[in-house]
Design a protein that fits this description.
The chain has 77 residues and is an all-alpha fold. It has 3 helices and no strands.
């Protein structure tokens, strides 16, 4: 088995162990929910990575349409 594959498997295992330990630590300390919120936000970003950008772009689109509608009213008057 090539050394790159071995190192990749070891790296993935270490990252998984760290993530599990951080999650268990967050559950162990109920007064400190910041870590748990971090994982919750991380899961939301994993589900829809461009949600924030999509929201900002839709707001920009709405404002541009409002400006164009205002310009059309001004040109008609």
């Amino acid at each position: 088995m090539p050394i790159q594959n071995v190192l990749l498997i070891i790296g993935i295992t270490v990252l998984a162990a760290i993530a599990i330990n951080l999650f268990l630590l967050a559950l162990h300390r109920p007064g400190k929910l910041n870590e748990f919120h971090f994982f919750s936000r991380l899961a939301n970003v994993a589900r829809n990575p461009w949600k924030g950008e999509d929201d900002r772009l839709s707001e920009l689109s709405r404002r541009v349409q409002a400006l164009r509608a205002g310009d059309e009213e001004d040109s008609e008057a």
